[in-house]
Amino acid sequence: MGSRLHQNNVASLRLEKEVTIQNRDGLHARPAALLVKLARRHHVDLWVERDGERAYPGKM
């Protein structure tokens, strides 16, 4: 788990946050839908990654 802050200029500020799901069954549909809703509300990019494979939940 970690976060990185990137600042290219005053108009561009980006924060990255990595979160690990500890549930052995993974991320279920309802909690995933809540994450997508929250990401849309705050205009952020969200993706889920497992074993190097990346998915964009809002585009599924």
Lay out the secondary structure.
Layout: E1 2-9, E2 12-18, H1 29-41, E3 48-50, E4 53-55
Antiparallel strand pairs: 1-2, 3-4
Write structural notes for this entry.
- The protein is α+β, with helices and mostly antiparallel strands and 60 residues long.
- It has one domain (2-59).
- Helices cover 22% and strands 35% of the residues.
- It contains 1 helix and 4 strands.
- The strands form 2 sheets. The chain has a two-stranded antiparallel sheet with strand order 1-2. The chain has a two-stranded antiparallel sheet with strand order 3-4.
- A hairpin with a 2-residue loop joins strand 1 (2-9) and strand 2.
- The longest helix is centred in the middle third of the chain and has 13 residues, at 29-41.
- The chain is globular, with a radius of gyration of 13 Å.
- The mean pLDDT is 80.
Descriptors for this entry?
60 residues; alpha+beta; two-stranded antiparallel sheet; two-stranded antiparallel ribbon; 1 helix; 4 strands; 35% strand
Quick rundown:
The protein is α+β, with helices and mostly antiparallel strands and 60 residues long. The protein has one helix at residues 29-41, and strands at residues 2-9, 12-18, 48-50, 53-55.
